Amino acid sequence: MAQISRTVPETMRAIAIDRFGGPDVLTMHTLPVPEVGANEVLIAVHTAEVGGWDAEMRDGSLSDKKPRFPLVLGGGGSGTIAAVGSRVKRFKIGDPVYSFPWDNPKGGFYAEYVAAPAETAAPVPPPLDLAQAGAIPIAALTAIQGIDDALHLKKEERVIILGASGGLGVFAIQFAKLRGARVLAIASGQDGVALARKLGADAAIDGRSDDVAGAAQALAPDGIDAVLALTGGKTLTKCLDTLRRGGRLAYPNGIDPVPRKRRGIKTKPYDGIAGRAQWEHLSRAITAAPLQVPIAAEFPLAEAARAHERLAQGHVVGKVVLRISH
Ligand SMILES: NC(=O)c1ccc[n+]([C@@H]2O[C@H](COP(=O)([O-])OP(=O)(O)OC[C@H]3O[C@@H](n4cnc5c(N)ncnc54)[C@H](OP(=O)(O)O)[C@@H]3O)[C@@H](O)[C@H]2O)c1
User: Fold this and answer.
1) What is the spatial distance between Cα 206 and Cα 301, in angstroms, rounded to a whole number?
2) Residue nearest to atom 20 of ligand 1 (CA)
């Protein structure tokens, strides 16, 4: 039988959409608290991660199947376990967790409760607290999988991280440094450059105004070994020109425009995934780093539309979050 905390109510506040559209379609709903299945946990949500993918879910551009309205957004976040399915042995009520149940049929993290498959959740690793852990599930998993699984970055290799001051980039810098690589961070604006240096980049420049070729030459006179591209376009073309023969390019699916394949460069598009092994891998790295989590803006649940307006303005340096409980 499922174990359920006595504090779980029947209904909850959730930000959901009843149709695709702009930020104004994000409205407060009262919805039933989702029931916990045998292989699931119910999470009392503390913090929801907000990313560009949420805006694409909201406006319908990410949807390839018939939508189930009202649709609760929020692919990742943190909270404490409020109920445990009958077949789940790894968690108990009260455990702090972070989770990434992408496209969860039972609803996302813009809500007071989420029922998620247990394998999509993991204990919050030290030294993070719930506020920090909730900001990072999709970004940090996708960043570390770029560094370790797509690029297989090794000690002393020279890597360019393009889009280094964005939601994934701020973690990619830290994971690349953890693996002992030499990092050229290509960031956005002087504030982005300053943050990239603070997070440990060996060199950091503004991709729109500084000399990419010169900075790469200074770090790696015989050519850059690898590029992690978190945005596409002209600056990425300049980065690829600095790669040595046999160099590697990795990028998460979604960057725009998609880079063209080049002869002599190993290219790896990939998607972030969240299984038990991936969480353990991430949590070890977070503790070893220890990971810094730059929060650019925080909004209460009721102001989710404002959070999406902030995303749409662009130039978010770090992460945007929704704070659901304290
Ligand atoms: N497939 C997957 O599993 C998966 C998972 C997560 C994310 N993604 C994709 O990964 C990409 C990165 O996500 P994210 O959350 O990190 O996005 P993000 O926060 O928007 O980061 C992209 C960064 O690139 C910067 N940038 C743009 N042009 C630049 C240039 N010429 N020079 C230097 N910096 C530049 C942006 O700065 P400004 O905002 O100042 O322009 C921004 O900081 C997105 O395309 C997303 O869809 C895919």
Assistant:
1) 33
2) 166
